[in-house]
Amino acid sequence: MIPIKVEHYNTNKESGKQLAQSEAITYTQAETIMQIFINRVDIKLTPSDVWVIYCKQVKEALLSSIRARITSLTNKGFLTKTETMRIGFYGKPEHCWIFPAEKPTQLELEL
């Protein structure tokens, strides 16, 4: 796995062990999502695409959680949002993301 630190949005005001567990899930999701993109470096993926792959490879997750991780990874510069759009699960257009052409080094990933 690639060690990536992304924001955990503590909207439920968790604390202690529960917060630590939620933060660990956030980081693990981000690492897995990055690996999904790295393994498909030339393929544009929507959040729905990533969600399907994630659920098959790991376990069920909320689509909104996958979207949040993709946004965080984009804000950190690890993923690039494209202008390409495809229809998602709910019949609405979704943007596609790609892994940048220039791959960050392991050192750059450890933020």
The largest sheet is: 2 strands, antiparallel
Q: What's the architecture, going by CATH? A: Orthogonal Bundle
- Major β-sheet strand ordering: 1-2
Spatial gap, N to C terminus: 14 Å
Provide the helix percentage.
40-55%
The CATH homologous superfamily name equals Winged helix-like DNA-binding domain superfamily/Winged helix DNA-binding domain
Tally of helical segments: 4
How much of the sequence lies in strands comes to 5-15%
Instruction: Kindly state the number of beta strands.
Output: 2
- The radius of gyration computed from the alpha-carbon positions, rounded to a whole number of angstroms, is 14 Å
User: Number of domains in the coordinates?
Assistant: 1
Provide the CATH topology: Arc Repressor Mutant, subunit A
* SSE-based structural type: alpha+beta
Order of helices and strands, N to C? HHHEEH
Query: How confident overall, as mean pLDDT?
Result: 83
Oligomeric state? single chain
CATH class equals: Mainly Alpha
Residue windows where pLDDT falls under 50 for at least 5 positions: 105-111
Shape by Cα distribution: globular
Molecular structure report:
The chain has a single domain (16-109), classed as Arc Repressor Mutant, subunit A. It is 47% helix and 13% strand. The protein has 4 helices and 2 strands; from the N terminus they run αααββα. α1 packs across α3 and α2 (47-57) packs across α3. The chain has a two-stranded antiparallel sheet with strand order 1-2. By secondary structure, it is α+β, with helices and mostly antiparallel strands.
